[in-house]
Amino acid sequence: MTSGKNVQEPDLLLLFRLTHTEYISGQPQWNMPRQFAEAYMLLVVEAGEGELVADGRRFSLTRGQLYLLPPSTLVEMASSGQSPLGLYLLQFQALRENGQTDKTVLFAKESDAAGFPYTGRLPEPLYAGALVAVEPLCRRSSDRTRPGIHQTYRLFHQVLAAICEPVHDRGRLDASEAIDKAVAYMNEFYRDPISREQLAVIAGISSWHFSHKFKETTGQSPTAMLESIRMRKASVSFYQSVRPLCR
């Protein structure tokens, strides 16, 4: 287990803790049973094919894809029998300073403490930078010598830097397209309970940024938009039910 500190403000201490690394390869019947992610989950698909289900939404897993799933995401994965997955799996926590004693800084887990610019399926340009660091990281994470721990620490933070790299050519247009995906999801599944975190995964934007981007794009909060959609759908349904009586 390794950790590293990132001081964003003079009075704010943020720490990332790597909790698990694994390489899954060549197992035709491999699957991850449905479970809630206890930490951030980074998937780097190196080969093969499979399927990911995140909060009820299905994604294909193919070579060259990169996914970042926030804590509490309901996750299920399976490898394709014809083309087994080659998949790097990293799990890590983001911790925020929660208080101090005389000798110790106390930390508390937060579901979106890190404020990553993207979640869900990450932009393709980020894949190469993440893969370069993930491969040696998974090989070295079992090395518990002091040099091995230092190298693991360096590679882990190289991965974090790679997935936070700005993708300038996405621009405002892609942000708008991401919000459109969330709105389309609300229009289709408005009868179901829908959380901000679930919409953020669908949009591919971290929940830390999602509410701001959503209001900037639509002029409404996600909650207000969802209520508006539900009221409109209910009105249409009511009108259609009484219309035959008016003839």
From TrEMBL:
<dbReference type="InterPro" id="IPR050204">
    <property type="entry name" value="AraC_XylS_family_regulators"/>
</dbReference>
<dbReference type="InterPro" id="IPR009057">
    <property type="entry name" value="Homeodomain-like_sf"/>
</dbReference>
<keyword id="KW-0238">DNA-binding</keyword>
<feature type="domain" description="HTH araC/xylS-type">
    <location>
        <begin position="180"/>
        <end position="247"/>
    </location>
</feature>
<keyword id="KW-0963">Cytoplasm</keyword>
<keyword id="KW-0804">Transcription</keyword>
<dbReference type="InterPro" id="IPR018060">
    <property type="entry name" value="HTH_AraC"/>
</dbReference>
<keyword id="KW-0805">Transcription regulation</keyword>
<dbReference type="Pfam" id="PF02311">
    <property type="entry name" value="AraC_binding"/>
</dbReference>
<protein>
    <submittedName>
        <fullName>AraC family transcriptional regulator</fullName>
    </submittedName>
</protein>
<dbReference type="InterPro" id="IPR037923">
    <property type="entry name" value="HTH-like"/>
</dbReference>
<dbReference type="GO" id="GO:0003700">
    <property type="term" value="F:DNA-binding transcription factor activity"/>
</dbReference>
<dbReference type="GO" id="GO:0043565">
    <property type="term" value="F:sequence-specific DNA binding"/>
</dbReference>
<dbReference type="InterPro" id="IPR003313">
    <property type="entry name" value="AraC-bd"/>
</dbReference>
